[in-house]
From TrEMBL:
CDD domains cross-referenced by the UniProt entry: MATE_DinF_like
Subcellular location as annotated: Cell membrane
Name of this chain's protein: MATE family efflux transporter
GO CC annotation: plasma membrane
Membrane topology of the entry: Multi-pass membrane protein
Alphabetically ordered keywords of this record: Cell membrane, Membrane, Transmembrane, Transmembrane helix, Transport
Length: 439
């Protein structure tokens, strides 16, 4: 079988968009469902709402694992696909699915044992902690499906199929969004109904991806050596992700020490930053798929052209977000709160937020390039350098020297700048562009 051609022409940008736009919908489906779930539960009272907030925080760790699994699988499957071996690309998905299923079962068992202590540690109110533990013990039953969906997204992106994941994820989440108010209100199951609706969405989605991989008729037996290679890749992505989490938690902790208004403004800007990152991640996913396929096909010039074009698209997307954010500077904070003190603090943060968005677009695109190339060890190291050498020192200096929110966001700017310089240097070199079906 001849390798699939990686065409570099004027249609490349359209190809990037064709992969990125369905991926964006898939990325947004889960957060949008969480908003629906939160709105439904919020009408039950403050204790159920607090319970979902606490339980959802714990569940977000499983979502994080799933994201790492999807990213790692995409790059490996894309290389196999680019080398002309779709069966091997699907087999990467089979092994990732075994890893997902095993990890999911382990997390379910751990949650049954530790749900109580975890929720008590996160919630100061005993009633909310008890309700959160009950919700969590049910909701975690959906984790195997959630992780199976992540593995499925990974190999399907690798073979450049982003339409079926769109239908699977969107369909299941729409069904669950309808089911949630029915179970919570009509069936009068309350918080339990919310948890069951979560499990339904995740289990149905996981089942659809499992059906898809079985339909490929690839060998289904586990191969420990391949799973081991995926774990090594996942380890580097996990360390990188942990550095991000340490930065965000530290930034929030320091912002809280400057008062309620500062914390509120920081939270608004940070959540908008996360939203922009979600959209820009769709471009990164296209980069993972196309770069991996080009390198798998042995076509380094094609991989470099994809990298150049996707970086340009990411930069343009970042500029568009910056223009929108700048235009909404006087409006957007008011959508979140009427507190004038928060608005005043947001006005301090906003120039930092707007100025960083174009650079963030380039950084996220190049992140996708390097993940697609399998160069995650370099990503891990440079993220740690940026976190330990830029972000975290500036954040805690901001606290010690009372610099306020400008110091915190200067730390985020330094973190972004370090990663940008490191990624551009790597991109201009040759060490990331290793051709072949495997790296």
């Amino acid at each position: 079988m001849s390798p699939p051609a990686v065409v570099i022409d004027r249609s490349l940008t359209r190809r990037i968009a064709a992969l990125a736009l369905p991926a964006l919908v898939v990325l947004a489906a889960e957060p949008l469902y969480v908003l629906v779930d939160t709105a439904v539960v919020g009408h039950l009272g403050s204790v159920p709402l607090a319970a979902v907030a606490v339980g959802g925080t714990v569940m977000s760790l499983a979502v994080w694992f799933g994201t790492l699994m999807a990213y790692g699988t995409t790059g490996r499957a894309a290389r196999r696909f680019g080398a002309g071996d779709r069966t091997a690309a699907v087999e990467e998905g089979v092994q990732a699915s075994w890893l997902a299923l095993t990890t999911g079962v382990v997390l379910v068992l751990l949650a049954q044992v530790f749900a109580g202590p975890l929720t008590r540690a996160l919630a100061s109110d005993p009633e909310a902690a008890h309700a959160a533990a009950g919700w969590l013990r049910i909701a975690v039953l959906g984790i195997p499906g959630l992780l199976l969906a992540a593995a499925g997204n990974g190999w399907m992106r690798g073979v450049q199929d982003t339409r079926r994941p769109l239908y699977f994820v969107l369909g299941a989440n729409v069904l669950s969004a309808v089911l949630c108010p029915v179970l919570v209100y009509a069936a009068d199951w309350g918080l339990t109904g919310s948890a069951i609706a979560n499990v339904a969405a995740q289990s149905i989605t996981g089942g659809l991806f499992l059906w898809a991989i079985i339909a490929e008729r690839a060998p289904l037996r586990p191969v420990p050596s391949v799973i081991g290679n995926q774990l090594v890749l996942g380890r580097d992505l996990l360390i990188r992700g942990a550095a991000f989490q340490a930065c965000w938690l530290s930034a929030t902790a320091v912002a809280a020490r400057f008062g309620v208004a500062a914390l509120g403004a920081h939270q608004i800007a940070l959540q908008l930053w996360f939203f922009a990152a979600l959209a820009l991640d769709a471009v990164a996913i296209a980069a993972q798929s196309l770069v991996g396929a080009a390198l798998g096909a042995g076509d380094e010039p094609a991989a470099r052209e994809v990298a150049r074009r996707v970086t340009l698209v990411g930069g343009i997307a970042g500029v568009c977000f910056a223009v929108l954010a700048a235009a909404g500077a006087g409006i957007i904070p008011g959508l979140f709160t009427a507190d004038r003190a928060v608005h005043d603090q947001a006005a301090i943060v906003w120039p930092w937020f707007v100025a960083m968005l174009p650079f963030a677009g380039v950084v996220y695109a190049l992140d996708g390039v390097m993940i697609g190339a399998g160069d995650v060890g370099y990503l891990r190291t440079m993220t740690l350098v940026g976190a330990l050498g830029g972000f975290l020192p500036l954040i805690w200096l901001s606290y010690a020297l009372s610099w306020g929110l400008p110091g915190i966001w200067a730390g985020l700017a330094m973190f972004t700048l370090v990663r940008l310089v490191a990624l551009l240097l790597r991109w201009r070199g040759t060490r990331w562009a290793v051709v072949g079906a495997t790296r």
